[in-house]
Amino acid sequence: MRNYENLVIVKPTLTAEEIQANISAIEEVITSNGGEIAARDAMGMRKLAYPLGKNERGYFHVIYYSVAPSAINEIERRFRINENLLRFVTIKYDTNREVTAWNQLVQKAQKKATQPAGEAKVEVEVEEVVIPAALEEDAE
Known about the structure:
The protein has one domain (2-114): Alpha-Beta Plaits, CATH 3.30.70.60. It is built from 4 helices and 4 strands. The protein has helices at residues 16-32, 72-81, 96-114, 133-139; strands at residues 2-10, 36-52, 55-67, 85-93. The protein has a 4-stranded antiparallel β-sheet with strand order 2-3-1-4, with helices on both faces. The longest helix is centred in the last third of the chain and has 19 residues, at 96-114. The termini are far apart.
């Protein structure tokens, strides 16, 4: 089994319940073909770089999963016939370096999913500043 990532863009004209039903259907396509979903990342509604059809926005959702390479053709075929998907892209993680990156992305998505929605984590890096002795004497 290989590691894959799918980014899907769902039509923005659907209601929230319809969007979630489509995401569930997409995940069902993956699991029915023998895939194991490792993580999900709901990126939410975003503005598109250019209009797709008459849509200026789309609901972005990323799915990280493992599946046999022979199942990818069927998964992508089912994505193509889903009229509620504006676009999708499948990314394969093959080499050791790519698999390591995939594992880090999965951990990041899982951490984001477990974090409470209202709590935004802010990270601030503080660097230590070293003042040369000559400047310290001038300041006094």
